[in-house]
Specification:
single chain, about 425 residues, alpha/beta, TIM Barrel, Lyase, Ornithine Decarboxylase, Chain A, domain 1, nine-stranded mixed β-sheet, eight-stranded parallel β-barrel, 12 helices
């Protein structure tokens, strides 16, 4: 079971929600930093351990800088993510750039920043070489195990996935790069998303450790680092348990000693690229109730919408909801909790039992610290919400202002404006 708590007292949170324009995101600095330190400590046995924080999870430089101070790197997959990382003081091999149908200019930018380039396909070798005029000294390949492994429900079956070099191509990919002059090699995979079963992560380590041994035997190439990817989930629902990361660490260490050490691959650097498990539980979407209506069902209408948090509409994902100040009241009313978009799937919850909700109540959606604000959009010309950081001293700092109409139209060209092509 996982307890869903608020980052500050009820009275303080209510006061904040009436001081600031809602909806807004609130991140708990102390909880994020403490969690990052614990994650590092759990895997401190691993040579050169580093977590490359998945920038897509929470692309805010304030958050990136907090994590960089704890030794985290940045996992990037686009030019803007690279630039955000650079602006946050993260560069060089502290950036892992994982390509995915990547434009040449993004390969060039990653190379110029000194990032580790993680190729998604054997054909990308030629694309990369043409883009930068050479091959980098270090290269990594993303492995797709195909029929040798099953994915989970979110990321899908590997044989259906667009990601990664196939099992038949993987050794040849390394041979090609070695012949071209690459000196250092890494191995990566990503076969799960929001996984709560720790044994899945341990078995992924087994798969990659064995593959590293195979590559050495078949190609004479020593893998110097293994990127376990991300995929470690969080318990969104109170009836779920968090992954036992101590068990994962212990299991991986045992496999390292069983497989890597006898193969002469020690020391082999171990890295992750987790985002969700680092910031997810410590971000909150704060919203106010605009309407409570009775149709064929009872509806709670918020000033937030799926434009602010789309996971429930996109995945049918559960996010716990707290009606601030009413936690101890009976949860004896059944509601759909909705937003204002012209889409009937603009719902944060369906048939959710809550205490009686009234207009003006403050609702908090939990576990929104990853893939929350970052997945927002502007449908119906909805403007993006602001982000705030709850600092260790209890003060609240704006780390992203609310989007304005001028921001929204800044890229548009109205009648009479000429565009040079």
């Amino acid at each position: 079971m996982s307890e869903k708590t608020l980052p500050m007292g009820h009275g303080d949170l209510l006061e904040l929600a009436y001081q600031l324009p809602t909806p807004f995101y609130l991140y708990d600095e102390k909880a994020i930093v403490d969690n990052a330190r614990q994650f590092n400590q759990l895997f401190s046995w691993a040579p050169g351990f580093r977590n490359y924080f998945a920038v897509k999870a929470c692309p805010n430089p304030t958050i990136l800088k907090l994590l960089a101070k704890e030794g985290f790197g940045a996992d990037c997959s686009s030019l803007p993510e690279l630039l955000l990382s650079k602006a946050s003081g993260i560069r060089g091999e502290r950036i892992m750039f994982t390509s995915n149908d990547t434009p040449a200019e993004e390969f060039r930018a990653a190379y110029e920043l000194g990032a580790i380039i993680n190729l998604d396909d054997i054909t990308h070798i030629e694309t990369l070489e043409k883009a930068i005029g050479k091959v980098p000294e270090t290269i990594c390949f993303r492995y797709n195990p195909g029929k040798n492994r099953t994915g989970n429900a979110i990321i899908g079956n590997p044989v259906e996935a667009k990601y990664g070099v196939t099992d038949e191509q993987i050794v040849e990919s390394y041979r090609i790069m070695q012949e071209k002059g690459v000196k250092h090699f890494g191995l990566h995979t990503m076969v799960a998303s929001n996984e709560l079963d720790g044994s899945y992560i341990v078995e992924t380590a087994r798969m990659l450790f064995n593959l590293a041994v195979r590559i050495k035997k078949e190609a004479g190439i020593t893998i110097e680092f293994i990127d376990m990817g991300g995929g470690i989930g969080i318990p969104y629902s109170p009836d779920q348990d968090a992954m036992d990361l101590q068990m994962v660490s212990t299991g991986m260490k045992a496999l390292y000693e069983e497989i890597i050490v006898p193969a002469g691959l020690d020391p082999l650097q171990i890295v992750f690229e987790c985002g969700r498990v680092i910031t997810g539980p410590y971000g909150y979407l704060v919203s106010k109730v605009l309407h409570v209506t009775k149709k064929y069902k009872d509806y709670v209408g918020l000033d937030a919408s799926m434009a602010d948090l789309m996971r429930p509409a996109l995945y049918g994902a559960y996010h716990h909801i707290t009606v601030v100040g009413k936690e101890k009241k009976p949860h004896d009313h059944l509601y759909d909790v909705t937003g204002s978009l012209c889409e009937n799937n603009d719902k944060f919850a369906i048939d959710r039992k809550l205490p009686e909700v009234e207009r003006g109540d403050v609702l908090v959606l939990h576990d929104a610290g990853a893939h929350g604000h970052s997945m927002g959009f502007n449908y119906n010309a909805k403007l993006r919400s602001s982000e705030y950081l709850l600092k260790r001293d209890g003060s609240v700092k704006m780390i992203r202002r609310v989007q304005t109409y001028d921001d929204y139209v800044a890229t548009l060209r109205f009648d009479g404006a000429s565009v040079e092509v």
